[in-house]
Specification:
The complex is a heterodimer of chains A (188) and B (378).
Chain A: H1 6-14, H2 19-31, H3 33-53, H4 60-81, H5 87-116, E1 121-122, E2 128-133, E3 136-141, E4 144-149, E5 159-163, E6 167-173, E7 180-186
Antiparallel strand pairs in A: 2-3, 3-4, 5-6, 6-7
Helix pairs in contact in A: 1-3, 2-3
Chain B: H1 3-20, E1 23-24, E2 29-32, E3 39-45, E4 50-54, E5 57-70, E6 76-84, E7 93-98, E8 108-120, E9 129-138, E10 143-144, H2 151-194, E11 199-204, E12 208-209, E13 217-224, E14 231-241, E15 244-254, E16 260-270, E17 276-285, E18 296-300, E19 304-309, E20 312-313, E21 318-328, E22 333-334, H3 338-343, H4 354-366, H5 368-376
Parallel strand pairs in B: 2-9, 13-21
Antiparallel strand pairs in B: 1-4, 3-5, 4-5, 5-8, 6-7, 6-9, 9-10, 11-19, 13-14, 14-15, 15-18, 15-19, 16-17, 16-21, 19-20, 21-22
Helix pairs in contact in B: 2-4, 2-5, 4-5
The chains are: A alpha+beta (188), B alpha+beta (378).
Chain lengths: 188, 378
């Protein structure tokens, strides 16, 4: 047997169901002892509710005043129970607190300086880098590099020149050919 | 282990060993001199050039020698070859130039190219290296070539310096005789060995902020004024932080009566002890530079230079600039005279010209008489 839900039974107990729903509920309850008991409990509750109304309005301000008074009483009792602290310990505690406060201020100032101070604009090792190496001139970017070497010539005999537009030049006299050779690597 | 797995394992080992082996570069180098070139390839040797794998990269060791023959009618005074690893990417280009040549029609001369190249292995096939003729400079200062790297202008400037310095030493020989020339050579070699050099690293690309080098400040340029220079530097600054200098910018005025399409300034820096070094050249060219007669323009480069010596950072204190090269709209090139360089004792700071370097080498290896004969050829 399918029972009506709790809400339907509660509404039936109060006589608040519609005509069709009420007829269905009455028909079921006439045959179901379990639901009759449930409806009886709802009716008892309904009879109790009016008596609860007689408790009157709660005095919230009075309750708040009582709670504050209890808190003060608790604090006062705590002061009475706590023994006298040695003066030195209290002083050290104060010093520690002052130290922590001072450190906080220093950290705050340092952070402020770091954030506000104008930092130099310099290039990190990203992008294209040109430089003279032990045996040549090189341009590199990421995994790719190109170097022109001056093999067979001591590094002391090589003259390097840098172009700010992105070039490095190595000039030397080739020991085999006797010609001045200029190796240049370019960014663009 | 079954036989099948053993074979697979050995095959994998073999493949790994094969990858790690050096592979000759024959056929992977493309030489392009152009159809109507005044030089022809008379011979080529790739020697022990090879490639090898290193992780995800391919390392190319190129040691080649070209023999070029002058097939034109004029004397060749300079050649520039453009060496390209990958045309489409930044940072894969270089050049090998031979200034101070004196090659008559029909004569041959060698050019050596030693390079090391590292590139990702994923890159598709084709030549690994292209060698193109970028420029050939003749005795009459005419120039042939693709000139993609402005080799004609550079070789013309080298040629102007060569003529200047040959004239200087010929004059010394005429006035002081062989002993005067010997003394001049000894002084030249002494200057070069005593010249202070810095290791300079050039960085291009976006700037990022770093506090590692200390506070940045604007360093104002001092200028050396050459009386006969067609360009006068007016004012300039660079940002300096510790051993790094970046973003130099200099305002210049064209005081000649002709339009100028290229200006190059020399940039000297001083360390904390006051010692001067040549930091870099600061070029500006058309179209970034528009400098008609009497007008002013700005030479600037968005670059960062970091200076070290023997691996230690060298703090920068001062900046000095001077005009080192000018090219007019008609292609003529101006370089400072020996008198200009002597006036400010720049010879102590600047490297010798390519020609002076060559003459020094002749004196050292072949002696004074050979040097006299060499000067007599011009």
């Amino acid at each position: 047997m399918k029972h009506p839900n709790q809400a339907t039974l509660a509404l039936h107990a109060g006589g608040d169901l519609g005509a069709v729903a009420g007829w269905r509920a009455r028909r079921h309850v006439a045959r179901c002892a379990e639901c009759r008991e449930e409806i009886a409990r709802f009716e008892q509750c309904r009879q109790l509710l009016p008596s609860l109304d007689d408790a009157g309005e709660a005095h919230w301000s009075r309750l708040a005043a009582e709670m504050k008074a209890n808190i003060r009483l608790g604090l006062a009792a705590g002061e009475c129970v706590r023994g006298e602290e040695p003066v030195g310990a209290r002083g050290m505690w104060s010093l520690a607190r002052a130290g922590v406060a001072l450190a906080s201020v220093v950290v705050l100032l340092a952070a402020g300086l770091m954030l506000e101070r104008p930092s130099p604009t310099v290039a990190r090792e990203t992008g294209v880098v040109l430089q003279a190496t032990a045996d040549g001139v090189q341009v590199r970017q990421g995994e790719q590099s190109l170097g022109l070497m001056h093999s067979g010539t001591s590094n002391d005999a090589v003259t390097y020149q840098v172009g700010a537009q992105g070039s490095v030049e190595a000039r030397y006299v080739d020991a085999e050919t006797g010609y001045v050779t200029v190796n240049t690597v370019n960014v663009e | 282990m079954s036989n099948k797995w053993r074979v697979a394992w050995l095959a994998a080992l073999g493949a790994g060993a094969a990858l790690a082996q050096d592979v000759p570069l024959d056929g992977r180098i493309n030489i392009n001199l152009g159809k109507d070139s005044p030089v022809a390839l008379a011979g080529m040797s790739t020697g022990d050039s090879h490639s090898s794998s290193r992780g995800a990269a391919l390392v190319l060791d190129l040691h080649m020698s070209l023999a070029l023959r002058n097939t034109g009618t004029g004397r060749i005074h300079g050649v520039a070859l453009r060496v390209v690893s990958q045309e489409v990417t930044v940072g894969g280009k270089g050049s090998v130039s031979i200034p101070s040549l004196n090659i008559g029609p029909g004569e041959s001369f060698p050019v050596r190219i030693d390079m090391q190249l590292m590139r990702p292995t994923q890159v598709a096939g084709g030549p690994l290296v292209d060698v193109n003729l970028d420029g050939v400079l003749f005795e009459d200062l005419s120039c042939y070539g693709q000139d993609r790297l402005n080799s004609c202008r550079t070789m013309t400037a080298w040629e102007m310096e060569a003529r200047r310095d040959r004239e200087h030493f010929k004059r010394v020989l005429a006035q002081g005789g062989p002993q005067g020339l010997r003394q001049a050579m000894i002084e030249s070699l002494g200057r070069q060995s005593a010249r202070p050099q810095l290791d300079v690293r050039v960085q291009r690309g976006p700037a990022v902020t770093s506090a590692a080098l200390g506070p940045v400040h604007e360093e104002q340029f001092a200028f050396l004024q050459f009386p006969d220079s067609p360009v006068e530097p007016l004012q300039g600054w660079a940002q300096v932080a510790g051993n790094e200098a970046r973003a130099p910018r200099i305002e210049v005025r064209n005081r000649s009566g002709a339009s100028i399409k290229y200006v190059e300034l020399g940039w000297l820096v001083s360390d904390t002890g006051g010692r001067q070094y040549l930091a870099a050249s600061l070029p500006a060219a058309d179209p970034a530079l528009y400098l008609p007669a009497g007008k002013t323009a700005r030479v600037e480069q968005d670059t960062a230079l970091r200076f070290t010596r023997a691996g230690q950072p060298v703090g920068i204190q001062g900046a000095t600039g001077f005009v080192s090269r000018v090219q007019f709209a008609d292609g003529k090139v101006w370089v400072p005279s020996r008198a200009d360089l002597d006036r400010f004792s720049l010879a102590r700071v600047l490297p010798a010209s390519a020609e002076e370097q060559r003459l020094d080498d002749i004196y050292l290896k072949r002696g004074l008489e050979a040097l006299e004969r060499e000067l007599g050829k011009y």
